[in-house]
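Pasting two entries for a bug report.
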Amino acid sequence: MGERATLVANPRPQTVTEPLYGWVVVASSHTVFILWTGFVKTIGVLLPWLTSYYHTDALALGWITAAFCATNNIAAVFGSILSVLIGSRKVAILGGVIAASGLLLASVSTSLLQFALSLILLTGSGFGMTMCICKVHLGIYFNERLALASGIVTMGVPIGLMVFPAFAELLRFTYGIQGTLIILGALSSNLIVCGALLRHYPGFRIHKLGSDRGYEPINSSQTTESPNVFAALKAHIADRLDVKLLARLDMRMLIVAYMLFSFVNDSWMTFMVSNAMSKGFEGYVATTFSISAGCSAVIFSVIQGILISSKFAGIRVVSAMATAVGSAALFLDPLLNSYLAMIVAVVMYGITLAVLNPTIVCMAIETQGRERAASAFGWMGLFSGIFRLLFGFSTGLLRDITGHYDATFILLGVMLFLIVPVLFVDILVPKCRNIVWRS
């Protein structure tokens, strides 16, 4: 039997400078986040035309969107396991091949089912595997400047918001829905190149399991019982998945925060342009709101990275303040009908997007450790994906019931605001226990 390999971290001295190649990893990961956002936004821009193209409604397309965002999250678990078995670079490249293949198949689909399966099973999961590896490599290459590096990487989300809505509208007008999906699939093939650039940090070595054990004597008096076999298999799987992480309060805090933010952000990116068009704005005018949100997020991504890296402000306080600002913008959406008011609202949400994306990544790496970051992102993605599958239909259902997106955006505002207390749960709960114990 071949020996299996796992990554074992060699502790890095604090005096060692962060390697220059880390910025190549940042640029590669930044591109991956741009492409993912571009994919989600393109589907969002095409949403009004997809309903007539496939003779369906917003509820079905809303669930499909939720489902491929869910598989994007769930695939992080498989990405983390495969990275141990075959190497992280190969996993990232494989994810790129799968993602691009899904979009190409979706472009030739003749039914809603074919379209859904292509995006859900292939494109969503392919992106998820690659994005998980990108986050893990940030923790491998960066220490003191982790917040800044994470901010630059996740800045790909607002840049995608700025570039792809108008680009997708132009592609749809010029080439139609099928042509748009083909071009998007070709662009997504760049994930393969990005994955090839994600090489291991030299301080991480491959440790062969079993290479240091030697031969053990066989005790012929022992018999192998099936319960013991199943117990050993169960323990092995639990070890591979690092199930013990779920017992940590800070890990559960991260899961809930990521679950809520992922749901809100993916829904916002999907329905924002359609929401603006339902208020009477033309398609190209509606895309300017995405550009405004993207500009806001780019600026505040840099600001938050500087503030946190310089220790000027705590990561949780900055995250809570930014979350409250974005929640207020979503709450006020039903009252916004003028162009200026919509611009202000999307700029406010851009602040949330700029801050929460990188800070959740940083908190996961810092609280769970760099060696367990892959497992942490895997569990966060798994629970987030399950949540999307169970409740992803709600946004489209509210649109079909009410005839507008007001109720949808109020729901998103409530969910986003719940993140504020969640961010401090792992700090407050132990303090409350101490107070109760003393009393």
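Entry 2 (this is the one that rendered wrong in the viewer):
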Amino acid sequence: GQATPTRHNHVAMETRAAV
């Protein structure tokens, strides 16, 4: 899990695969 603001900003601890 990366702390990068992905498409799902509500979960910053989510992986980039959630794009």
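Dev reply: Rendering is fixed now. As a check, the viewer should reflect this: The mean pLDDT is 61.
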